[in-house]
Amino acid sequence: MEKTNTDELPLAMNSTEKQETVCIFGTGDFGRSLGFKMLQCGYSVVFGSRNPQMSSLLPNGADVLSYPEAAKKSDIIIMAIHREHYDFLTELTEVLNGKILVDISNNLKINQYPQSNAEYLAQLVPGAHVVKAFNTVSAWALQSGALDASRQVFVCGNDSKAKQRVMNMARTLGLTPLDQGSLMAANAIENYPLQLFPMWRFPFYLSAALCVFFFIYCVIREVIYPYVYEKKDSTFRMAISIPNRVFPVTALILLALVYLPGVIAAILQLYRGTKYHRFPDWLDHWMLCRKQLGLVALGFAFLHVIYTLVIPIRYYVRWRLRNLTITQALLKKEDPFSTSSAWLSDSYVALGILGFFLFVLLGITSLPSVSNAVNWREFRFVQSKLGYLTLILCTAHTLVYGGKRFLSPSILRWCLPAAYILALIIPCTVLVIKFILILPCVDKTLTRIRQGWERNSSYSKSPLNGKTDI
Amino acid sequence: MEKTNTDELPLAMNSTEKQETVCIFGTGDFGRSLGFKMLQCGYSVVFGSRNPQMSSLLPNGADVLSYPEAAKKSDIIIMAIHREHYDFLTELTEVLNGKILVDISNNLKINQYPQSNAEYLAQLVPGAHVVKAFNTVSAWALQSGALDASRQVFVCGNDSKAKQRVMNMARTLGLTPLDQGSLMAANAIENYPLQLFPMWRFPFYLSAALCVFFFIYCVIREVIYPYVYEKKDSTFRMAISIPNRVFPVTALILLALVYLPGVIAAILQLYRGTKYHRFPDWLDHWMLCRKQLGLVALGFAFLHVIYTLVIPIRYYVRWRLRNLTITQALLKKEDPFSTSSAWLSDSYVALGILGFFLFVLLGITSLPSVSNAVNWREFRFVQSKLGYLTLILCTAHTLVYGGKRFLSPSILRWCLPAAYILALIIPCTVLVIKFILILPCVDKTLTRIRQGWERNSSYSKSPLNGKTDI
Amino acid sequence: MEKTNTDELPLAMNSTEKQETVCIFGTGDFGRSLGFKMLQCGYSVVFGSRNPQMSSLLPNGADVLSYPEAAKKSDIIIMAIHREHYDFLTELTEVLNGKILVDISNNLKINQYPQSNAEYLAQLVPGAHVVKAFNTVSAWALQSGALDASRQVFVCGNDSKAKQRVMNMARTLGLTPLDQGSLMAANAIENYPLQLFPMWRFPFYLSAALCVFFFIYCVIREVIYPYVYEKKDSTFRMAISIPNRVFPVTALILLALVYLPGVIAAILQLYRGTKYHRFPDWLDHWMLCRKQLGLVALGFAFLHVIYTLVIPIRYYVRWRLRNLTITQALLKKEDPFSTSSAWLSDSYVALGILGFFLFVLLGITSLPSVSNAVNWREFRFVQSKLGYLTLILCTAHTLVYGGKRFLSPSILRWCLPAAYILALIIPCTVLVIKFILILPCVDKTLTRIRQGWERNSSYSKSPLNGKTDI
């Protein structure tokens, strides 16, 4: 069996600096990858194994010993062992006393055990300093050096010196340690690598449902209806025309749903007369995924923009315009210019563009690095003021798009109104309620409630409190 | 009066870990929110209040005591009290001796007091370790857990152990502490949450002024002029046609204004023969908001791009093209193809696209996370080399757009030239001066000045200095 | 000679806090800039110089002394001297014993010396604590306060207290220190400011080569060929039409080249039966610059999108459409509607839009701040699943674009097929191989190999290992 090439051995062996020795318990894939990386970065590595003689795959330059012997070689021991096999460590409590145990384990499911692996380890070996680290890094990334996503190492532990040493080790390996506080954070750190966009699920499923519903709705109105009544094959509309109705409708509804929970919360607070009641759970969850809802809406708005801009390139549109022109030319009829049509057409386009522009601004400010660079006041200003302006512009865009046709009965097909009319229901509701909420009399009460005032409270009547304290 | 539900009490009470007790002075809204969050995260909380018996709103599980009694319970005391009421603390100096006082106060105005609140506190209670923290977090964010913008907690203090403990506390609350050094940073930290885009004001007002000016200018030329002379109603042009003249003009001028201060600074340095003079204040401020000027310009360029791309969808444009075609068809006249028109039309579009593309690249590299990932040399390369290339392309785009019409007198209306001609003045000036500055003879002198050389200086003649030192 | 104005002197002289004194060796430009900034931030500064009396340019308020005298004033000494002149420090070993020496030097070339400057300094003065810092900040940025790109200060050193003090100093100067671990990191820190987009070179040159090749190829087919056979002047096509063939072709090839190395690596692993062999160097480098390749491809895709959207605005296109319409009108011939053409036209446009949309999503997730916010699993999901979907959509876009014309011999000109046919070779190859690799039988073996299993290995047959260990 071939071993790793010798030319991969540490190049930078500084004779002046005495090499630190790290012990790794377990010779699985991740343990070996970590050991290999450590050897490359100038550490001396000792593996601890149940069957030291059978471990033939280990990187060149590393020793393999039995667990107790390996543990004696170093005061940092990395536990590359599954949680299920931690119990043998109870036999080693004496050797492990005072050592730093680095728990790098992950589970298969979120919250698999009531207690996090690192806390379980700390309980098994009370004399050792347990530090949770490295579980968010992948073995492949360690080996290849391609650390795009996972340069960050979340570190937590109760002993701050032990934590510092592990963080220094991470830095030497080219990683970015992030101190997450005490071992109580271990549970969150262990769950982290198992997540798959938890906050995006609700927005994703909701928008998928909206898309499917409106797609079928539009197919009925624009493909099946003309086929039934005129025997006309309009199936080709399913590629661009119908998506370009579905996307803006979904985007507008999702954008309105971003602002709906805030409006509901304000009504609840006004009704209860206090802000110290908890909101119902569904409202809490909804409020926490508003950013994701907004970004999904932005995605659909972006698609709508491009689908709209390609209109003049489409074969169907060119054919229709050409035929219209030819017919008019043959009839020798000039088309009179209608200023009101020009106004309507230009305004709904302009409103849409400005709405999209603000929407993109909102999207950019929700990038983590941008929102970290603004303070709370600025963030509120952008997300609330600009956000409502975006909603107003996009709703107006849809209203003007409807324009004259809005209430004409001819747009009903099988009693189904056009999709954009359905899309307007939620945004208009949100805007109307919000308008009521910012009326001075309502707004004043709401502001007082949000500053801690309570209707029916003896507390708020005390003249001293609420003035001296923050 | 209802209290907060018991099901919100800390879920993760680790019996193994002894609970740390934190004392909070003051029972205002922010104090209660912070206390509530701390209880949730496993801390034991004691409130200090002037009227312990009246404070009925406090979270379940927290004790309320008088100030001295509460202070004795913990060695970390959070001051949730307005600065104006700090003076009573002088009576408690004995109790507070050696304790960590966390100043979380904010002011109502920037630089309200000559001394920052935290430094004032440190002066009042000299025996305590004052740490400034938590003032950038909002009460609402703490309560709701929606910490989008404000997960960052700026921390400063003179005692590094006290600072470490407060930073650990912030981490336990799920926040990201950022060490800002000694208590001298407190002033900046207290001003931070009061800012509302300070660097964006000048670019914003400037661009608003430019927009208004050019909008009125274009309305005079394109709406009022044809109305006066031809009685033609062109008001609909105000929705798209005129904004699509105003936006590119504003964008180009703002982009040129990004590079103008650098050019002025170079001329000043050449004239003075040294770089160790300070620039005038207005030039300093201008140079510091170049990034914001450039991003506002990018916003206008983006709007210009979309306004241009929607042209073929507009009712007016379709109507005009159709009528043109019909007229030609009726006259049975074929339009000869002009290669030079095709070249002109295609080149100005291509130049505009490439300029916009580079402009977007510049915008992306000014995102905080991207500019943090490049070094100084790379940043200079992008912002200077690519920046000038962008300016050249955009200026050329405008010049070729003018094309043949440029000097024809027919484009003057009431002696007013087209807006794009005005827009070219600053960019062309900047490019001409820059061209002179990079001529080898001028560039050599400038480079020497920027490396520390001074005309009329005995220092620079010393053969030793400037060679050995950095 | 004028000195810096006195109004720039430190405004915030806190009498309560005793001023810390910092010593700077060397009076070059960077040394003076740093000293000036330190005076502004409240430090007391002493310069050490070979000729103390000749240094007339120093900031007001700083003393200039001989090296040994200056060194005695402070326990932090900043070495603003070129590495070549470090040797005089050997005479000062006694004075420097126990002091913190901050190495701020840079070299002129990457890896200019076998040993980093900081390590060389540590070897020269073994009794001092050497810390590497400040070399990534520019003198200009320090003076002007415009610290856009370079607020980050990489710090490394073997003594953690010395490092902490230097990091605090950086914070006081308004910079963001980043701990990079021990002095072994000094080499990387010294090379950092000399880099000019090292990972972008290969993608840049490759895409430039592809662009030039396809540009010439298209000029031959679309400008020279019609000129030779029809004496038609199509040179104007070089501004938009031909770039709009070159850009999508380059984008598609580059996108396929992002996924080709992964496919090659999988084949190599299957062939070798192990993942513990190293890949050849070219493959390693290729894999490490995949992100950059992808982003360059996205740039070209973006250009392709805008070049396509401007089509209806172009003079040539308008002229051609108008003439076509007039000709038909004169012939009184109506154009029959072809549903299959409508389907083809709409589908390739829709596929392109969706592909571009996913491509933009991929680009956004590769922003540093976004990719830091996702875990390894999410990153893999986006980059691998969404990435392949993007490749499939873009390849399908090109295939449907070809549509019916694909195999018609008329598109050959001088035996040269259209550019898009050449562009399809690599993407189709990648997709076919990938399809084979995800067949269950092949995929199962590959997954086992990637989990550490090896064909022909006694190790993998051990029943204990690979189960207990991570």
TrEMBL record, chains A, B, C:
Assigned keywords, A-Z: Copper, Endosome, FAD, Flavoprotein, Heme, Ion transport, Iron, Iron transport, Membrane, Metal-binding, Oxidoreductase, Transmembrane, Transmembrane helix, Transport
Primary localization: membrane
Reactions performed catalytically: 2 Cu(+) + NADP(+) + H(+) = 2 Cu(2+) + NADPH; 2 Fe(2+) + NADP(+) + H(+) = 2 Fe(3+) + NADPH
Ranges for domain Pyrroline-5-carboxylate reductase catalytic N-terminal: 21-107
Domain Ferric oxidoreductase positions: 249-394
Family stated for the protein in its record: Belongs to the STEAP family.
Protein name: STEAP4 metalloreductase
Species of the source: Microcebus murinus
Gene expressing this chain: STEAP4
